[in-house]
Design a protein that fits this description.
Blueprint lengths: L11 E2 L2 E10 L2 E8 L4 E8 L13 H10 L11 E7 L2 E7 L4 E2 H6 L6 H20 L12 E3 L5 E3 L17 H4 L6 H23 L11 H9 L11 H13 L26 H42 L16
Antiparallel strand pairs: 1-2, 2-3, 3-4, 4-6, 5-6, 7-8, 8-9
Helix pairs in contact: 3-5, 3-7, 5-6, 6-7
Length: about 325
Amino acid sequence: MLSTPVFAGSQDVGPYSVLEDLGPAPFGMAYLALDTRSDRTVILKVIPPSRPGLGQEITPWEILLEETAALLRIYHRGLPALFEVTEHEGSLLVAFEAVKGETLHGLLAHGARPDRGQLIDWGCQILEILAEAHAEGLLHRHIGEDSVLVTTEGRVVLTGFGLTQLVFDPLTALAPEQVAGEPLTPQSDLYAVGSLLRRLTFASRLKSGGGVVGTNGRDPLLKVLARATFSDPAARYRSAAEMADALRQAGRARAAVPATGPRAVPPAADSRVTPFPSPQRARSEDSEDGDRRWALLLLAVTLLLMLSVIATGWFLIGGDAGDVPEVPGSAQTSIP
């Protein structure tokens, strides 16, 4: 580890020129640095031989080092590229891509509140990244708001695999088996993803008054998150890919929305309840409206005919009155 404080532009670490001190990170320190060999800006993590904080980590150092090296074999747009893992004067140097983006923690702090579609999209992107990592034998172990970045293009980047972790995320939800000190599995990461999406859902409800995700128990998204966070790992999804498929299906099936008034609209025949009327119901309502219009038109025509008959009768009666014959013996009054 560096024996003196690092100041921007005043200290070199092997081939790296330090640009900014990013502060303490798990096991060491983190810096924004320039790789003088390629003029590439990187995140440089310097881990001293003493490895501070290792005693609190339940995962053996050898496994973390092996998983970090495995990142060199993975190329995924949702993972920061790992450029190098090497030693320098007894310290371990881990250099990886400096991704431009905002953490979910930062987005929420700035007032962003994702809607239902955004939650599902973020969740699917995270799970796709996990599927790639799990296939290489990597576990994340601490997925939280500070380990998920969102770029300006809306792309999700999952940071913190192996020894690339930069922050001590206090919002990370630990799976029950992790709290109990039992071996972690891919289902432990799925638990963390489910917990993260539930926290984001709750934050969105506070902002929108509950309009983001259905609250009547019928929303399939809530069912997906409930299964992902079962206390028993065997009851969760078998893989990140399976959970991602379930999230996509939840996105296609809309949340059940109660109708106005004391009685709710019953679900459609295919069991998917939508907040919009189905085509059959729309046609039925149009037919009813047409019948009502025809009835009003017939009533108006009938009234006009009746008025016409009455008017004609009055005219006839009025015309016949001048030709009424005189009645014999009746009094006649004439005007000279």
